[in-house]
Amino acid sequence: MVVAPGTFSVPQDVSGSLATAVTLNFIVSGRGLERCSRIGEQMGTIHGVFAENGPLYRLRGRDVVCAADESALDEFRDAIGMRLVGEREAVIKIDGRSCRIGLEPKRTIISFEPGPSCAWSPAQLAEKLSDLVRACRLRAQIIGPLHDGGIDVQPFSIDGFPLNKGITVDVVQTEFPEIERVFALIDGKNDRPLAEHPRVFPITFRNGDRGIQDIVSRRGGWIIDQVGYLGGCAEAIRRISTFCV
User: What does the DSSP assignment read for 81-126?
Assistant: First the structure.
């Protein structure tokens, strides 16, 4: 959303807007912690990074915290006979059928990247994985397909509760009690928990998922008529700063 797909370069209008913003700023992403941290370094005024849909996070000046039950991922891997064949590829087996599938390396979620060698379309694979999770009573949830066709397997928390990006609101307001209002810049299907969170004012963009736009509109949020990484994020930050003055 902040950077163009497949890149790490933060637009200057975003970093410039943040430099004069009157807000505490956090990155919340489905991407890995290293990628999020690299982007945060460019943005400058970042008070924390929530990676892998939220449960792996680091607040400024603090150690990394992991709220996910990583053993739940081991159970899931066993259920689909998952075997790594490289850093970014694995073999899985569902309904007696095996196929190779791409992976994005992460710690607390499994991010599948179905490609031409996958036996199922992203939608079919997501449905099969969801059926398997229910049938085997696995402590995980399936998120996707996302806008790029990816599918995330998100484990439950250490306490046995489903995890999603909504965890960031609770952590931020606990650690920073001076925060009075939470604005969330969102665009993808995995942002739905933030879009629907009662303590969040949601903001999305022209290129946002249609379902997310519908939720934002229904809740009275803002739909910026620009692509997020092509001026939309900077415009949202400017509007927030004006709103908070």
Answer: T-EEEETTEEEEEETTEEEEEEEE--SSSEEEE--TTSSS-HHHHH
Cβ-based neighbour number of residue 228 at 10 Å: 26
Residue 67 in contact with residue 157, Cβ under 8 Å? yes
Q: What Rg do the C-alpha atoms of the chain give, in angstroms?
A: 18
Whether 3 has a pLDDT exceeding 80, the answer reads no
Q: Indicate the number of domains in the chain.
A: 2
Alpha-carbon distance of 99 to 167, in angstroms, equals 34
Residue 56: give its domain's CATH number. 3.40.50.1000
Give the structural domain span for 200.
12-67+163-244
Q: Rounded to 10 degrees, what is the CA torsion of 128, 131, 133, 134?
A: 180
* Single pTM value for the model: 0.88
Residue 226 has a pLDDT of 93
Query: Position of tokens 């397909």?
Result: 145
User: From its phi and psi, is residue 85 left (phi > 0), alpha (psi between -120 and 50) or beta?
Assistant: alpha
